[in-house]
Amino acid sequence: MAIGVRKQTSDASGDARLSYARPLLRGVMLFFLLAFLLLWLKSYDERALMLAVIVPVIIYIGVQGIPRLFPADRLLLSLTNFLCALGVLVLYRLSPERGLQQAVNFGVGVAAMLICTVAVRYIRGWKGIVLLLVPASIGLLALPLLYGTEVYGAKNWVTIAGFGFQPSELVKLSLIVILSWLLSRRKVALSILVTGVCLGLLMLQKDLGTALLYYGVALLAIWAATDSGLLLALGCVGAGGAGVLGYRMFAHVKRRVAVWLNPWSDRQGSGYQIVQGLIAIANGGLFGTGLGLGNPGVIPASYNDYIFAVICHEFGVLFGIVVLLFFLALIMRGISIARQSDSVFHSLLALCCTALIGLQTFVIVGGNIKLIPLTGVTLPFISYGGTSLVSSMCLIGFLQGVAARNTAQLAEAEKRARFEEERP
Predict the structure, then answer these.
(1) Whole-Å CA distances, 282 to 86, 310, 320, 371, 377
(2) How many Å apart are CA 276 and CA 273, to the nearest integer?
(3) Phi and psi, residue 94, nearest 5°
(4) Which residues have C-beta within 8 Å of that of residue 285, sequence separation ≥ 6?
(5) Are 296 and 289 a contacting pair, CB within 8 Å?
(6) Does the pLDDT value for residue 317 go beyond 90?
(7) Is 269 helix (H, G, I), strand (E, B) or coil?
(8) Which of 18, 39, 131, 319 is 20 to 30 A removed from 32 (C-alpha atoms)?
(9) Which of 422, 316, 389 is nearest to 112 (CA)?
(10) pLDDT tens-place string over residues 271-309
(11) What's CA 171's distance to the chain center, in Å?
């Protein structure tokens, strides 16, 4: 196995993380208190005043309350809560209604995170769950083909009883569990088959952005579990072939690539979104126009696809880099959690969660700054959308479950060691 496990040897690292987490928590709470107060002074909207209290309280409960229930990583919680609260703040700035809804989504996401944490922490046998998740995942991905709504060229939304959601966001979670369990049992061929079926259904929906995420996470997980350079090389070749095939098959992909190469050729038409996003980032400069003082509404899809451009516009490029550093710290912490697990399944689970967050962040930020063609994925924790936010919080729940399990195993190992030392 390429996935290695490493046990913690002392409480020093935990104490160090706690010493960093406490001032980080205070700083995060103060930041959002002042930011919402600033928006209240600008509009005298009592909803902003309400969020000035509610958001810091949710952050405090999330960081300080959860660890009282079971072992949890406070640093990971602080990073996640900052990103979620930033989404609420920016969305409230764009649209108070969306901001309030995202605050509700934030609360639901915290509850979902707790459920996933408990599941990973205490469930011992995953075989039966995985056997149920495989057909359920395929069925969910097939729903948009039968009852879906097309958005930006991809038929990936389903509306049931007035509630709209993306099944692919839910399947991200189940696919991670399926891959981690199959690969921990050395069932490589079966994991490739399940991933291939999911990718085929996404191709039929023309949802190439999500397909890219699925493919990237699966490839990394297979490589980590097998340490096979051949499989990695074949996967990279397959990714290139799939990209060429998607470009030739779908007209909206050709348009996106053409616009990415030269958005200025049709700046009032197909290139309008990219051009406005780049202009917004440039106008923000290093320090931004100021919260509430910019004009981010001119960017199409500013509340989801281009929310990073909005952040750079009003808070500045330097703050945008800080946001990316928060994501980087989250990814590094996730990798550390994966390495500390003594279970191959839990190690792969933490690795897949971390890889998905990192890859999704790269894809959407890269699209915003014109590094790569824009795809229809959301910025984790920040972009508007209940399904997206809750699924991202579930990923953190998986990571927290593995971290809690690591802590419990470390405590048990130290207890056994003390017992052995005290034996006559």
Answers:
(1) 21, 11, 12, 15, 23
(2) 5
(3) -75, -40
(4) 316, 317
(5) no
(6) yes
(7) coil
(8) 18
(9) 389
(10) 788 888 889 899 988 998 988 888 888 888 888 888 999
(11) 14
pLDDT band at 1 (very low <50, low <70, confident <90, very high): very low
Handedness of CA 154, 396, 98, 269 (dihedral sign): negative
The predicted model gives 352-374 an average pLDDT of 91
Sheet holding 154-160, edge to edge: 148-151, 154-160, 163-165
Q: Quick: pLDDT tens for 320-340.
A: 999 999 999 999 999 999 998
> What tokens does 374 get?
């824009």
Rounded Cα gap, residues 371 and 363, in angstroms? 9
Question: Contacts by 141-147 with C-beta closer than 8 Å and gap 24+?
Answer: 141/167, 141/168, 141/171, 141/198, 141/201, 141/202, 141/205, 142/201, 143/167, 144/205, 145/201, 145/204, 145/205
CA end-to-end span of the chain, whole Å?
A: 39
Look at residues 320, 327, 260 and name the one whose alpha carbon lies nearest to residue 284.
320
Question: Taking the model in full, what pTM does it have?
Answer: 0.87
Longest dimension (CA), the chain: 83
Q: How far apart are CA 379 and CA 418, in angstroms?
A: 46
pLDDT-based confidence at residue 254 (cuts at 50, 70, 90): confident
Q: What are the Cα distances from residue 26, in Å, to 30, 64, 82, 115, 325?
A: 6, 11, 11, 26, 18
